[in-house]
Design goal:
2,3-Dihydroxybiphenyl 1,2-Dioxygenase, domain 1; 4 helices; 4-stranded mixed sheet; alpha+beta
């Protein structure tokens, strides 16, 4: 894989409106500052999201990343560092209002303070589902989320033939599903 070092200038509005694909960024160093909406210069080492060559994910992936609203970035960061670290995810991108985690392949997950300055709140009916490698990993991560203070929204178990899942709400009330097929 070829990595390219590039200098970019982005605004908060651009990050929120069209997003910076967190799954594509492996490291980031700020060379400037920003306060609210403004310009920053950043250096990024970028590479494409890595799916298994020829897999359905590589051919059909539509989701690049998901952001979950938070009112307390530090608390959310500690929760997701501990939770997503269990599956090998690391911070892939970070700014004053957001942090995104990636496993180095596929979509990434981030937390963000709302751009409009209003309080973050979970939507009714909205949910983010994270694919796990096995039923054991669903069980493990669901238990880890609860041990970190998440609220149980449905214990891990088979929902229907071939679909195993556990549900929880994070510390900000965002609903997440951990699932595996098979």
């Amino acid at each position: 894989m070829r990595l390219a070092r590039v200098a970019i200038t982005v605004s908060d509005a651009l990050v929120d409106a069209v997003g910076v694909p967190a799954g594509l960024v492996q490291t980031r160093t700020n060379t400037g500052t920003r306060a609210g909406v403004g310009q920053i210069d950043a250096a990024c080492t970028c590479s494409p999201a890595r799916f298994p060559r020829g897999s359905n994910q590589e051919k059909n992936s539509m989701i690049g990343y998901v952001t979950l609203g938070t009112n307390d970035l530090e608390r959310a960061a500690a929760f997701y560092d501990a939770l997503l670290g269990e599956i090998g995810a690391k911070r892939g991108m970070q700014g004053p209002r957001f942090i995104a985690w990636t496993t180095g392949r596929g979509p990434s997950v981030g937390v963000i303070k709302p751009f409009d300055g209003e309080q973050a709140h979970p939507g009714n009916g909205g949910m983010t589902a994270l694919a796990m490698a096995s039923r054991e990993q669903v069980d493990q991560l669901h238990a880890k989320a609860l041990s970190l203070g998440a609220t149980d929204e449905g214990p891990a178990g088979e929902r229907f033939k071939g679909f195993y899942a556990g549900y929880f709400r994070d510390l900000d009330g965002n609903k997440l599903c951990l699932f595996c097929m098979g």
